[in-house]
């Protein structure tokens, strides 16, 4: 299926234009996957591990395809829209995600990182600071965690997070503030690198 | 290093997937979207079905007397895929009953242009495993210019629906206009829908001549039947009587809508196709003849996508769990 694998030759065209074209020419939609699929896949893997990423990314793009007629064509970058759809799908695995953070906090073994580690048998152990962060991530509400991780791991701006989640930018700020109060507290309000050394002895 | 920077380092070694994996995923996506685009106009499963907000009291009609067991083959419409033989109702009799019930419905008040139509649907794909189903709540404004839904954060997100000149779908107000203009004589109605330029010329991506006038009549009447919020009772009655006149239209009993509700599965067999790949049902609630959902069942193994073969007996269901007219997006009836 050579045509299915065509390169994104429309590099001068923004996402909105691509989505507009895909309404009449469904195959045009594939270029959107070429642009944003790999980054989104990495983000989902970072949240839930390698095992769920293929399905969630595939579902995200299929849902996006079905909603392409509803895309707001005044927005040139489709990333917030795609990450918003993915957030919904990731949210369905919220229990598993929290379990991973708790296990990481408790044992230091990062089961999510193990799914993509080079050597399968290798135990991926986290630093003490990351264990503490994981315990904070486990206690956040889904909405606060989504905002925090869209900013820290998906590199979205405040406006883009607002767009992705369909919330005002003020709410993004307040959620981020609330989330960071917990992450800061978890790190003990001290230099986490120093904390790490102390903890290694204990 | 602050907490955010520390968080950015956590799992920072997560790799992007390799090119080969991405290429395979992209190819799969193209196959799925092609099939999806094709299906979207061949059978409008994903359309929100509109049900009237005011519930009408319906006489319960016992259909058991109409049942005749016709074949001992597998039962395509049931979820278990075939231990019991399918039971068919006598098409003309059942559809005439439906017409009589429909005629007795009270006329509902038309929604105002800025009211919203709410729909909660359950969708289960043919390849979905147990428990893998999508439940979605959505709002569309009566004038069709805005849509709304809940975000992951639990907030109502309203977005504009830009005009799509190539699409055949209509806003709720558009369906209301079309339905009001339909003849209530079943013969005239059939002639009208099979020759309606709107359904012949749209959607723009449909290949010319992809359906016969009979197929078109069945498709369009099925689409109309899903618009129950704006349906004039006399037109609904005429639709059931017109369906009964289309060659190949049959009614199977106990077709599951994916949520365990069993209804009357109206489908159209193609008399020329002896081994069809799929069968699509419009499922009506026995007694009230309200629309419950749709089911497409595979009658043969489908290998058109080698990576995702669909085996015989699987089905794709879309059920309407709740619907109605509300004043604001986010409200439920």
Describe the model.
- The complex is a heterodimer of chains A (202) and B (333).
- With 202 residues, chain A is mainly α.
- Chain A has three domains: 14-92, RNA polymerase sigma factor, region 2, helix turn helix motif (Rna Polymerase Sigma Factor, Chain: A, Orthogonal Bundle); 94-139, no CATH class; 140-191, Arc Repressor Mutant, subunit A (Orthogonal Bundle).
- Chain A contains eleven helices and no strands.
- Chain A has helices at 15-24, 30-48, 50-66, 79-91, 94-107, 111-116, 128-139, 142-152, 158-165, 169-186, 192-201.
- The longest helix of chain A is centred in the first third of the chain and has 19 residues, at 30-48.
- Chain A is globular and about 55 Å long.
- The model of chain A is unreliable at 1-10 and 190-202 (pLDDT under 50).
- Chain B is an alpha+beta fold.
- Chain B has one domain (18-326).
- Chain B contains eight helices and eleven strands.
- Chain B has helices spanning 3-9, 19-42, 91-103, 172-180, 186-194, 197-201, 213-225, 233-245; strands spanning 67-69, 87-89, 116-124, 134-141, 146-150, 156-160, 249-256, 262-268, 278-284, 291-298, 315-326.
- The longest helix of chain B has 24 residues, at 19-42.
- The termini of chain B are far apart.
- Chains A and B meet through helix 2, helix 3, helix 4, helix 6 and helix 7 of A and helix 1, helix 2 and strand 6 of B.
What is shown here, in short?
Chain A is mainly α and 202 residues long. Chain A contains eleven helices and no strands.
User: How many domains comprise the coordinates of chain A?
Assistant: 3
Terminal residue distance of chain A: 57 Å
| Oligomeric state of the chains present here | heterodimer
Q: Helix segment count of chain A?
A: 11
Mean pLDDT of chain A: 84
In the sheet with the most strands of chain B, the strands line up as: 1-2-7-8-9-10-11-3-4-5-6
Structural class of chain A: mainly alpha
Dominant shape of chain B: globular
Strand content of chain B: 15-25%
Distance between the termini of chain B: 51 Å
Strand content of chain A: under 5%
Task: Report the strand count of chain A.
Answer: 0
- The domain count of chain B comes to 1
Biggest interface goes to: A-B, 66 and 49 residues
Largest beta-sheet details of chain B: 11 strands, antiparallel
- Overall form of chain A: globular
Give the structural class of chain B.
alpha+beta
- The CATH C-level name of the largest domain in chain A is Mainly Alpha
Order of helices and strands of chain A: HHHHHHHHHHH
Largest sheet of chain A: none
Helix fraction bin of chain A: 55-70%
């Amino acid at each position: 299926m050579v045509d299915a694998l065509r390169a994104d030759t429309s590099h001068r065209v923004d996402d909105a234009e691509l989505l507009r074209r895909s309404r009449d020419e469904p195959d045009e939609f594939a270029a959107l996957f070429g642009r944003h699929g790999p980054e989104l896949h990495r983000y989902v893997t970072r949240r839930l591990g390698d095992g769920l990423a293929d399905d969630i990314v595939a579902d995200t793009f299929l849902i996006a395809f079905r909603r392409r007629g509803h895309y707001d064509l005044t927005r040139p970058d489709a990333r917030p829209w795609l990450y918003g759809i993915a957030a919904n799908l990731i949210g369905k695995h919220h229990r598993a995600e929290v379990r991973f953070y708790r296990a990481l906090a408790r044992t230091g073994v990062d089961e999510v990182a193990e799914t993509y580690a080079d050597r399968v048998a290798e135990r991926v152990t986290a630093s003490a600071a990351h264990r503490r962060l994981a315990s904070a991530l486990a206690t956040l509400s889904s909405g606060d965690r989504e905002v925090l991780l869209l900013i820290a791991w998906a590199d979205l701006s405040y406006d883009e997070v607002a767009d992705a989640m369909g919330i005002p930018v003020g709410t993004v700020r307040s959620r981020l503030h609330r989330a960071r109060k917990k992450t800061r507290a978890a790190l003990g309000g001290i230099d986490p690198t120093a904390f790490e050394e102390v903890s290694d002895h204990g | 290093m602050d907490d955010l920077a520390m968080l950015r380092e956590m799992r920072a070694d997560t790799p992007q997937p390799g090119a080969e994996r991405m290429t395979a995923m992209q190819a799969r996506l193209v196959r799925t979207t092609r099939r999806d685009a094709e299906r979207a106009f061949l059978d409008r499963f994903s359309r929100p079905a509109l049900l009237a907000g005011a519930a009408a009291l319906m006489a319960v009609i016992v259909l058991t007397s109409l049942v005749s067991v016709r074949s001992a083959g597998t039962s395509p419409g049931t979820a278990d895929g075939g231990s019991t033989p399918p039971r068919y109702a006598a098409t003309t009799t059942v559809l005439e009953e439906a017409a009589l019930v429909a005629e007795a419905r009270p006329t509902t008040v038309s929604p105002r242009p800025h009211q919203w139509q709410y729909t909660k649907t359950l969708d289960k794909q043919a390849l979905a495993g147990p428990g893998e189903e999508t439940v979605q709540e959505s709002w569309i404004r009566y004038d069709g210019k805005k849509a709304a839904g809940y975000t992951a954060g639990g907030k109502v997100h309203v977005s504009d629906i830009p005009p799509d000149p190539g699409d055949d779908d209509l806003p709720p107000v558009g369906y209301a206009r079309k339905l009001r203009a339909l003849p209530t004589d079943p013969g005239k109605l059939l002639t009208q829908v099979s020759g309606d330029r709107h359904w012949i010329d749209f959607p723009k991506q449909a290949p010319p001549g992809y359906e016969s006038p009979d197929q078109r009549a069945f498709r369009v009447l099925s689409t109309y039947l899903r618009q129950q919020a704006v349906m004039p009772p006399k037109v609904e009655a005429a639709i059931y009587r017109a369906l009964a006149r289309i060659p190949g239209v049959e009614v199977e009993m106990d077709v599951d809508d994916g949520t365990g509700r069993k209804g009357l599965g109206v489908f159209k067999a193609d008399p020329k196709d002896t081994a069809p790949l799929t069968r699509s049902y419009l499922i009506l609630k026995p007694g009230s003849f309200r629309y419950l959902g749709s089911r497409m069942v595979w009658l043969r193994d489908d290998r058109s996508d080698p990576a995702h073969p669909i085996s015989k007996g699987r089905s794709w269901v879309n059920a309407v769990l709740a619907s109605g007219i509300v004043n604001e997006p986010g409200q439920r009836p």
